[in-house]
Amino acid sequence: MLLPLSNVPRDYAWGSTSLLAELEGREPSGAPEAEVWFGDHPGDPADVADGTTLDAVTGGTLPYLLKLLAAADPLSIQVHPTVAQAREGWARESHLAVDDPTRNYRDDNHKPELIVALSERFEALGGLRPVADTLRLLEGLGDSDGVVALRTRLSGDGDVLRDAVAWLLSGSAQREVDDIIRAVDAASSEEFAEEIAAVRSIASRNQGDPGVVVALLMNFIVLRRGEGIFLRAGLLHAYVSGLGVEIMAASDNVLRGGLTPKHIDVPELLSVLDTTPGVVPVLRPAADGPVTAYPVDVPDFSLRRVALEGGRLPLDVSGPAMALVTAGRVDVEGADGVAVTVPVGEAVFATADETALVLSGTGEVFLAQPGA
């Protein structure tokens, strides 16, 4: 059975006032429009065409949450736990109300994420940069007291990245944080010009936030349309700007590390954080054929991008599945052969008994389902 899905955008402050409206071909609402959720998450289950919501169909058992995400300003720097960490944290905080703002664990699940760019440029921070590279970047910031203090910490022994993050977020380093942010504003580096410009822009929106300097330790990633990154448990990240399709395990577990007025629990963040430095691989669209798979090593979800150029394209699915249309005019057929036209910015849900979908038309579709 196929069920058309829609939802209203969530108005988080970092949302864009134009990107979702442009995608859907409508006038902007004038308010920030940050995310559109296609899932059965109790916080905002998708609307079914018959007037119900998707959780009434699934019983809240869908293992993934599919979203459109439109960022005009940076989201919080954050990290997500493993399943084991989430279960332990959920049990430890069982005495707190679920909506307690100091609560770190809203459920007992992990929250790996995959984001694929829909805009021609999507900016993100992902993972911690190799220390030697960051030391070269800091050379472009001069020798003020804060910069020297950070450089000294990164030149020590042991887990210097964990030590630096803990120091920056401790509350005792605000003088150095402010000094480093001033140095970023005046910095010059040919090798790291794009990274410094990105952090300078982040600083302009987050005055005095220690997360600005944490961002200076992270890889700056630019995705082009159709490119994606997978963000595993423990990996520090933040989306900066752009429009994308995001899919994640169905969870609300977020440990924040800056660029937010929300609760930050530094010890818990550090207990979850993986400080292994390195680049985050960019997953690129297929060079040939209409289907791009974005491989991830989690059982909660998988995602394929389908570029349709007319005709009919049958694709096997392992439900429950969703087809989210992001461009053009696309029809989706299930086992009964009845075509459902899916507007851009909306989706169709295929119940678990559907084993194949036929896509037709011209446009772009993202096909989500549980992972292998």
Automatic annotation (TrEMBL):
Gene3D superfamilies tied to this protein: Jelly Rolls, Phosphomannose Isomerase, domain 2
GO BP of this protein: carbohydrate metabolic process; GDP-mannose biosynthetic process
Active site: R256
Catalysed reactions, as listed in the record: D-mannose 6-phosphate = D-fructose 6-phosphate
Leading EC class: isomerase
Keyword terms, alphabetized: Isomerase, Metal-binding, Zinc
Annotated ranges, domain Phosphomannose isomerase type I catalytic: 2-130
Needed co-factor(s): Zn(2+)
GO CC annotation, single: cytosol
Signal peptide: none
E.C. no: 5.3.1.8
Cofactor binding description: Binds 1 zinc ion per subunit.
Gene Ontology MF, one: zinc ion binding
Annotated binding of Zn(2+), by residue: Q78, H80, E113, H237
Family per record: Belongs to the mannose-6-phosphate isomerase type 1 family.
Protein name per UniProt: mannose-6-phosphate isomerase
